[in-house]
Amino acid sequence: MGENKDQDFFSHKFPTISQVVEEMKELWGMALPITAMNMLVFVRAVVSVLFLGRLGSLELAGGALSIGFTNITGYSVLVGLAAGLEPVCSQAYGSKNWDLLSLSLQRMVLILLMAIIPISLLWLNLERIMLFMGQDSAITGMASVYCFYSLPDLLTNTLLQPLRVFLRSQKVTKPMMYCSLVAVLFHVPLNYLLVVVMELGVPGVAMASVLTNLNMVVLMAGYVCLCRKKEMVFKWGCGGGVVAGLCSGLGQLMEFAVPSCLMICLEWWWYEIVTVLAGYLPRPTLAVAATGILIQTTSMMYTVPMALAGCVSARVGNELGAGKPYKAKLAAMVALGCAFVIGFINVIWTVILGQRWAGLFTSDDPVNVLVASVMPIMGLCELGNCPQTTGCGILRGTGRPGVGANINLGSFYFVGTPVAVGLAFWFKVGFSGLWYGLLSAQVACAVSIMYVVLVKTDWEVEALKAEKLTRVEMSSSCNGLRSKENEKNEEMKGLLGNGNKKDDIC
């Protein structure tokens, strides 16, 4: 049984029940700790909002505006760029190429350090931007204060996001969960100390979030230094120099990072567009309030498929890197099956609890009625969202984030947006029309991604691409970079610094 676990199976044979069960154990052994970690991050955000609310309505409104702005312009971009590590790290780990695994992490940190420069400029000019858009000056002023004191969080995220992908690609998920748990446990005392005891107000809430993320980074970095020494290689720092070693392969990594960023951000930003559109409906206050509740709800539900997507990306990448295309295919199929089950569960509970759910957030009856009317539609959206999110993870694991980015662009902006605007405003369907637009986007996205994964993916070809990607290693003599097999691997040297065409690795 132990030998079979490490072997691939033939294309003409269906996997056995024991193989499917084994893959489910492997997948959920990774996904459950990641889901718990995502929930802890969600709790941290809730705690920050609660302390903002304790300060007053102006502070709450300003903090909420700042949180939305920083999510759109900053955190979504950093998370998306870091996702570009998934195919490289997971396939490098599968082939035991520690040089490529470590070097890619270091280069991604440099990419994010460059990315936070324009992001910082946006954050520093939040007040001017919001006033130009017609926002209330008092709320905008408060938001700019929160945003200014959140600036150090950009630096912590340049390490935090790549470390999460680096560890997840190696199937190391429980330590991440424990690091997050310890950091979040100190989040409430930090808020109490800075906001209540030291009376720092809004800056205190922002600084508490920064310190919590810093604690996560320190704990994860400590774990990597102490327990993952084999995977951390720094040979590139000698000979050609640190700067030359870092910069030589950034272009190749960017070819994964930019499409991954677009794939994630295009979907993330669409929900913010829905919030803006809700403000143009009749009775905009009710519509925006209901939208806020629904987006918080879908964010909570998203924690499971998001964890599943990250873990299946790692599983597919690991097996492709190890030269096992049909085990990679099995991992993808099992993950998609689990995603559909999760989607059906979400449909069931949103239908059953739709009338009561909004009452957990507000006692305003009109808002409750509006939320209840849309909850079943949102449940159907999740039936598409779960498999499409998982499918995006599969595409990242096979090194094809550009395909997912194109699908998300077409589905959300060329299908979902016209349907949402047309139904809500032209056909006067109102608030529910916006969510029918989301439903149409999710259906288009899920169908397209399922077609690519189930019909258009040649797993043997993907394994060959992974072999090309991971068949290189750093020179042990520190005289520059060289391949394992000289001319045979010449086409892949670009990723480690000698330039190459995109088609050779994608």
UniProtKB/TrEMBL annotation:
<dbReference type="InterPro" id="IPR045069">
    <property type="entry name" value="MATE_euk"/>
</dbReference>
<keyword id="KW-0472">Membrane</keyword>
<feature type="transmembrane region" description="Helical">
    <location>
        <begin position="64"/>
        <end position="85"/>
    </location>
</feature>
<dbReference type="GO" id="GO:1990961">
    <property type="term" value="P:xenobiotic detoxification by transmembrane export across the plasma membrane"/>
</dbReference>
<feature type="transmembrane region" description="Helical">
    <location>
        <begin position="105"/>
        <end position="124"/>
    </location>
</feature>
<dbReference type="InterPro" id="IPR002528">
    <property type="entry name" value="MATE_fam"/>
</dbReference>
<dbReference type="GO" id="GO:0015297">
    <property type="term" value="F:antiporter activity"/>
</dbReference>
<dbReference type="GO" id="GO:0016020">
    <property type="term" value="C:membrane"/>
</dbReference>
<protein>
    <recommendedName>
        <fullName>Protein DETOXIFICATION</fullName>
    </recommendedName>
</protein>
<feature type="transmembrane region" description="Helical">
    <location>
        <begin position="204"/>
        <end position="226"/>
    </location>
</feature>
<keyword id="KW-0812">Transmembrane</keyword>
<dbReference type="Pfam" id="PF01554">
    <property type="entry name" value="MatE"/>
</dbReference>
<feature type="transmembrane region" description="Helical">
    <location>
        <begin position="330"/>
        <end position="353"/>
    </location>
</feature>
<feature type="transmembrane region" description="Helical">
    <location>
        <begin position="433"/>
        <end position="455"/>
    </location>
</feature>
<feature type="transmembrane region" description="Helical">
    <location>
        <begin position="30"/>
        <end position="52"/>
    </location>
</feature>
<feature type="transmembrane region" description="Helical">
    <location>
        <begin position="176"/>
        <end position="198"/>
    </location>
</feature>
<keyword id="KW-1133">Transmembrane helix</keyword>
<dbReference type="GO" id="GO:0042910">
    <property type="term" value="F:xenobiotic transmembrane transporter activity"/>
</dbReference>
<feature type="transmembrane region" description="Helical">
    <location>
        <begin position="405"/>
        <end position="427"/>
    </location>
</feature>
<feature type="region of interest" description="Disordered">
    <location>
        <begin position="480"/>
        <end position="506"/>
    </location>
</feature>
<comment type="similarity">
    <text>Belongs to the multi antimicrobial extrusion (MATE) (TC 2.A.66.1) family.</text>
</comment>
<feature type="compositionally biased region" description="Basic and acidic residues">
    <location>
        <begin position="482"/>
        <end position="493"/>
    </location>
</feature>
<feature type="transmembrane region" description="Helical">
    <location>
        <begin position="233"/>
        <end position="251"/>
    </location>
</feature>
